[in-house]
């Protein structure tokens, strides 16, 4: 191709099979991911001291609102991030699972603190030794109780996961196999 100034521009041939739809789908994934990541609505499921640290995280000194999570939802149908904080008794397990199943897809889970992640110091018959035995967990926040900075770091990790997750991931065979492992779907 020759320009108005007389110089020649070489245009590389388009590879076979590349269509505009590939670009559009990739861009759509990025836009949807960015929108989801910056508008996460958490549902706090707090049963003990980790809930107090979460309250401090929501207060003005740490201000979780700067990360787009200022709208707490106490209805599972309107939340997309389940934050489990504190000791979960085995009798509470079915209720936690029901709350998780009532959440609309896509949904993510943060296990906050040692008790929710592994039972903590309560290695007894009545305490669930980690919520990942009944629901899938995306991010674990360690500590007993974790500091607000650690909770914010967990939120940032969820945001990164949400932003980079494909829109089609929830339809993948791997995701469906993971849900089957928990007896869902």
From TrEMBL:
Its EC number is 7.1.1.-. It is an enzyme of class 7 (translocase). Pfam families: Oxidored_q6. NDH-1 shuttles electrons from NADH, via FMN and iron-sulfur (Fe-S) centers, to quinones in the respiratory chain. The immediate electron acceptor for the enzyme in this species is believed to be a menaquinone. Couples the redox reaction to proton translocation (for every two electrons transferred, four hydrogen ions are translocated across the cytoplasmic membrane), and thus conserves the redox energy in a proton gradient. Its main location: membrane. It catalyses: a quinone + NADH + 5 H(+)(in) = a quinol + NAD(+) + 4 H(+)(out). Gene3D superfamilies: 3.40.50.12280. GO terms for cellular component: plasma membrane; respiratory chain complex I. NDH-1 is composed of 14 different subunits. Subunits NuoB, C, D, E, F, and G constitute the peripheral sector of the complex. It comes from Dawidia soli. It is a peripheral membrane protein. It is found in: Cell membrane. Binds 1 [4Fe-4S] cluster. Residues 49-157 form the NADH:ubiquinone oxidoreductase-like 20kDa subunit domain. [4Fe-4S] cluster binds at residues 49-50, 115, 144. Its cofactor is [4Fe-4S] cluster. GO terms for molecular function: 4 iron, 4 sulfur cluster binding; iron ion binding; NADH dehydrogenase (quinone) (non-electrogenic) activity; NADH dehydrogenase (ubiquinone) activity; quinone binding. It comes from the Bacteria. This is NADH-quinone oxidoreductase subunit B. One of its GO terms (biological process) is aerobic respiration. Belongs to the complex I 20 kDa subunit family. Keywords: 4Fe-4S, Cell membrane, Iron, Iron-sulfur, Membrane, Metal-binding, NAD, Oxidoreductase, Quinone, Translocase, Transport.
